[in-house]
Design a protein that fits this description.
- The chain is of the alpha+beta class.
- The protein folds into three domains: about 120 residues, Butyryl-Coa Dehydrogenase, subunit A, domain 1; about 110 residues, Butyryl-CoA Dehydrogenase, subunit A, domain 2 (Beta Barrel); about 150 residues, Butyryl-CoA Dehydrogenase, subunit A, domain 3.
- It contains 14 helices and ten strands.
- The strands form three sheets. A four-stranded mixed β-sheet has the order 1-4-5-8. A four-stranded antiparallel β-sheet has the order 2-3-7-6, covered by helices on one side.
- Strand 2 and strand 3 form a beta hairpin.
- It is globular.
- The site of flavin-adenine dinucleotide (FAD) has 23 residues, from helix 5, strand 1, strand 3 and helix 14.
């Protein structure tokens, strides 16, 4: 039995949940997976995910969630991604990237208004961190929010925002006190995208993730009321940091999904395709690739589940989430590359979805913290362990 279906790693309830999610994907997503690639994903699909409960595994019952935890979120992320990667990127941007800061730092009123409809799938959320001049160095953020009476006025641009042009709400990070370091001078706001001054500059034309929409946004004198500040003014940076470990763990699970489907196709293809009078799996050049793919998938899954279990126990998981995300995303790129190679010329056509997963997987050593930044974080955690202050 493969580790992803094994009771050594998972509880019976988790395995049953995985079967349920997989059936949902086979029934609702797989038949339209190619159609979805024309993008943008239909809102109806997000609604279906909400109604099925897949927008709410991390969220409290008060807002319609099930609060089952990160170990369930990684099951949803892997299964949907194994069917259509862009759709899960959209789901996760809404429920995790946008949803978790609201869930953890929002008031009961904010959660009712701005989170419950996300969990139901009736509304779509996005998170606005990245800007034209600010990527990895989030502390260098340039978007500003200034007080005007009891309101705030936001000005700036946000780039590469998943769901940007589709979203109803954005958790937008902005500098509110430029006189101090942004660790203390950044704040988080819930912005209604229908507010005057909010505009979509364009949707980016991406290499992959074609079913999703990723946008460049502009905020010109966008007014927000005091009830739209998330947490306290000045608390933006800790809110931003808090979200990253659960995001990275979920992205690791998505990457396992991108790898899994091409791996399964390659295993079957190598058992059917014959050259030189024998199945191509009989050649070590092919079968050792299959072995490496299996190793990478199993290792990625164990690392991701470790991070998820730690987060579910309330433990700090910066190192484990970073390791899981880095390993799983690099593994997915290698697996999709090798799977395409095993199918030869057929792999390079659109007859199989491997080329799609190959393009999708390439994003994931960039978004949610680049591979270089993750290696920096991992070594920093190592040195903190060896030489505690
Ligand atoms: C499809 C897609 C969806 C996205 N969705 C969102 C979203 O929903 N919300 C959001 O806010 N952002 C989103 N992003 C932005 C993403 O998080 C950033 O692209 C990422 O953080 C990297 O920033 P950058 O692209 O500006 O690259 P840069 O930070 O400019 O980096 C360029 C290169 O320099 C390297 N580099 C930078 N600093 C260092 C360093 N200190 N040490 C070593 N190497 C370094 C990087 O690793 C990279 O290789 C998305 C991006 C894409 C492509």
């Amino acid at each position: 039995m493969s580790a992803h279906l094994s009771t050594v790693l998972w509880t019976e309830e988790e395995l049953e949940f995985r079967r349920e999610v997989r059936e949902f994907c086979d029934r609702e997503i797989a038949p339209v997976a190619d159609e979805l690639e024309k993008g943008p994903y239909p809102r109806e699909m997000i609604r279906k995910l909400g109604r099925a409960g897949y927008m709410g595994v991390l969220h409290e019952k008060e807002v319609g969630g099930t609060k089952r935890g990160v170990s369930y979120e990684i099951i949803v992320a892997e299964e949907i991604s194994a069917t259509n990667a862009g759709l899960d990127m959209a789901r996760m941007a809404s429920t995790t990237l946008y949803g978790m800061p609201v869930s953890k730092f929002g008031t009961p009123e904010q959660k009712k208004k701005y989170l419950e409809p996300i969990v139901k799938g009736d509304k779509i959320g996005c998170i606005g961190i990245t800007e034209p001049n600010v990527g990895s160095d989030t502390a260098g953020m340039q978007t500003r929010a200034e007080r005007d009476g009891d309101e705030w006025v936001i000005n700036g641009e946000k780039r590469f925002i998943t769901n940007g042009s589709q979203a109803d709400y954005m958790v937008c990070f902005a500098i509110t006190d430029p006189t101090v370091h942004s660790k203390k001078g950044m704040s988080a706001f819930i912005v209604d995208t229908k507010t005057d001054g909010f505009s979509v500059v364009k949707d980016h034309d991406l290499m992959g993730m074609k079913s999703a929409r990723v946008s460049h946004l502009r905020l010109e004198d966008v007014r927000v009321r005091p009830g739209q500040v998330l947490g306290e003014p000045g608390q933006g940076f800790p809110i931003l940091m808090d979200e990253l470990d659960s995001e990275r763990t979920a992205i690791a699970a998505e990457a396992i999904g991108y790898g899994r489907t091409p791996y399964e196709i390659a295993v079957k293809y190598a058992n059917e395709r014959e050259q030189f009078g024998r199945k191509i799996r009989m050649f070590e050049g092919v079968s050792f690739k299959i072995a490496d793919m299996a190793i990478r998938l199993e290792a990625a899954r164990a690392l991701t589940l470790t991070a998820a279990r730690m987060l579910d126990r309330g433990m700090k998981a910066t190192k484990q989430a970073s390791i899981a995300k880095l390993y799983a995303t690099e593994a997915a790129i290698q697996i999709t590359y090798d799977a395409l190679q095993i199918l030869g010329g057929t792999g390079y056509t659109t007859d199989y979805p491997i080329e799609r997963f190959y393009r999708d997987a390439r994003l994931m050593t960039i978004g949610g913290g680049t591979a270089e930044i993750l290696r920096f974080l991992i070594q920093r955690e190592v040195y903190r362990e060896f030489f505690p202050k």
